[in-house]
Design a protein that fits this description.
5 strands; RRM_Rrp7; 7 helices; elongated; alpha+beta
Length: 310
């Protein structure tokens, strides 16, 4: 039996790797796990951070492992590091930025259609099953915080019982196979048919043309917008929109800031009027108060001068 390596702040989860025809030797793989240190949302408090996940890991494999530790129903899902960092293909022209002022329901329908178009424009997947580099990480989401404590407690007990979870036990043929079948499937997916490629290209240009239209709308909206000094730049020909998306976003931000500045200035103008009105009222009130005091004093002095007849 392999000796369990030490790890600071991590619990060690030993997993038994069964023998394979290509490597007919049973071995032990060590996965290191701890509570997720980055607690930003409520979900983070019920998650575990995993290091050194096996190269052939899938959600089904870890679901079976956690079910063997604490029973079914406590494992919700897992996010591998390549899923969290994988970039998505952008179909925007360099200067595209959305400008839509539609009703809520209509906007939601349009966004759903746009999302569907963008998904259809993505490049097809070339692998039926993703493999991982050595030492890869993942984040497991459990049902609640109590499940996290139960998993850590069950992992600590494994060093005494020596009954390690068996990798792939209970998965069967639910996960796509590796080996030669995996490579054959990859070769087939790498050469899609002409119809599939044409559909993807059509979807791509549908999204691209929509972004172009939105960029033109942004350019028209910004043409008559004055700058900070109040001047409007007049151009003849040439491009009518920023060259990069960053420039478009910066231009849009400045335009919104100018609009907000105008609104604040208008509000401050009315606030100034209110302040001046309150000051005038206070001055008038103090003036009447002093007049009343003078009248009362004069009445008292007049009363003292009046002597009753003897």
């Amino acid at each position: 039996m392999a000796e369990q390596p030490a790890a600071d702040d991590f619990s060690v989860l030993p997993i038994t790797l069964p023998s394979l025809p290509s490597y007919p030797v049973q071995s032990t793989h060590f996965v290191y796990l701890r509570k997720n240190a980055k607690v930003v949302t409520k979900s983070d408090a019920r998650s575990l951070f995993l290091v050194n996940v096996p190269a052939d890991s899938t959600e089904l494999h870890f679901r079976a492992v956690f079910a063997s530790l604490v029973g079914a129903g406590r494992f919700e899902g897992i996010t591998f590091d390549h899923n969290a960092k994988a970039p998505t293909t952008s179909h925007e022209p360099a200067y595209a930025l959305r400008l839509a002022a539609l009703g809520k329901r209509k906007r939601q329908d349009q966004e759903a259609q746009h999302k569907q178009d963008e998904e259809a424009a993505q490049l097809p997947k070339l692998w039926t099953r993703q493999t991982h580099r050595s030492g890869s990480t993942a984040v497991v989401l459990l049902a609640d915080e109590k499940s996290v404590e139960l998993v850590l407690k069950a992992v600590r007990k494994l060093s005494k019982t020596k009954k390690y979870p068996i990798w792939g036990d209970g998965v069967g043929d639910k996960a796509p196979p590796l080996g030669s079948q995996w490579l054959k499937a990859h070769n087939k997916l790498s050469y899609p048919g002409n119809d599939a490629m044409q559909d993807m290209v059509d979807a791509y240009f549908t999204v691209f043309n929509r972004k172009e239209l939105e960029a033109a709308q942004l350019a028209r909206a910004m043409q008559n917008e004055p700058d900070e000094d109040g001047f409007v730049t007049v151009t003849r020909g040439g491009r009518t929109a920023p060259a990069r998306q960053e420039e478009a976003e910066e231009a849009k931000r400045k335009m919104l800031e100018r609009q907000q500045k105008k609104k604040d200035e208008t509000q401050n103008f009315y606030r100034w009027q209110l302040r001046e009105k309150k000051k005038a009222e206070q001055v008038e009130f103090l003036k009447r108060f002093e007049d009343d005091k003078s009248k009362l004093k004069a009445m008292r002095e007049k009363r003292r001068k009046i002597q009753p007849d003897s």
